[in-house]
Amino acid sequence: MIDKHWESAEAAVSDIEDGASLAVGGFGLSGNPIALIEALLAQGTTDLSIVSNNCGVDDWGLGVLLGARRIRKMTSSYVGENKEFERQFLSGELELELTPQGTLAEKLRAGGSGIAAFFTQTGVGTQVAEGGLPRRYNVDGTIAVASPAKDVRTFEVDGEPREFVLEEAITTDFALVHAARGDRHGNLVFNKAARNFNPLAAMAGRVCIAQVEQLVEPGELDPDGIHLPGVFVHRVVEVGSDIPKRIERRTVAVEGA
């Protein structure tokens, strides 16, 4: 039997060194592994390269690492609600590799599946394929680093030639994810919308650290209900069901409207 349970978030992230690459689960603020992020913030790890759908908000999720100047590069699908993310990118303080959302998901899944690269139609005919997207700006607003051109090939689909762009898979040193339940073997179950980029990020990390709201014993999870098998998970930390969960943008109806 392999017991992957760790006593604290602080212990679980203690060997994440400066300059490490991380795949981090979450979509907006749903499914953010906030306990692991805050433990990483507290230990002072810096110069991080992070792959995540977005970067939280200014004071929550990955935004707390960004605000503390701990992130060197983000690989994301959108800037979202994070004004500091936008400011650091436009001022040349942060490198950003913008990636179409579905492509980013597949790059993580491919990395975890041992697939080196894949072809997709997404981005054909745009700067995603042709190169030239700004990745880092100079202080004066000129482009310091631009994306390179990618390999584009033609394949026949339904009897018609179509162009596809080659996208390389992503693997990272570590992955940080959040799950509703997990057992000591690392099998995970996610709750509703929190089953977003979390399974994919977990697959891409060479060492996956999962915070779970409830830790159960092996055999207590329904095998048919497991969303991510423990083979992808190396450390499990129980954080409790009362862990804070933020809503990115609350919208309510006006009474009587």
UniProtKB/TrEMBL annotation:
<dbReference type="GO" id="GO:0008260">
    <property type="term" value="F:succinyl-CoA:3-oxo-acid CoA-transferase activity"/>
</dbReference>
<keyword id="KW-0808">Transferase</keyword>
<dbReference type="InterPro" id="IPR037171">
    <property type="entry name" value="NagB/RpiA_transferase-like"/>
</dbReference>
<dbReference type="InterPro" id="IPR004163">
    <property type="entry name" value="CoA_transf_BS"/>
</dbReference>
<dbReference type="InterPro" id="IPR012792">
    <property type="entry name" value="3-oxoacid_CoA-transf_A"/>
</dbReference>
<comment type="similarity">
    <text>Belongs to the 3-oxoacid CoA-transferase subunit A family.</text>
</comment>
<protein>
    <submittedName>
        <fullName>Putative succinyl-CoA:3-ketoacid coenzyme A transferase subunit A</fullName>
        <ecNumber>2.8.3.5</ecNumber>
    </submittedName>
</protein>
<dbReference type="InterPro" id="IPR004165">
    <property type="entry name" value="CoA_trans_fam_I"/>
</dbReference>
<dbReference type="Pfam" id="PF01144">
    <property type="entry name" value="CoA_trans"/>
</dbReference>
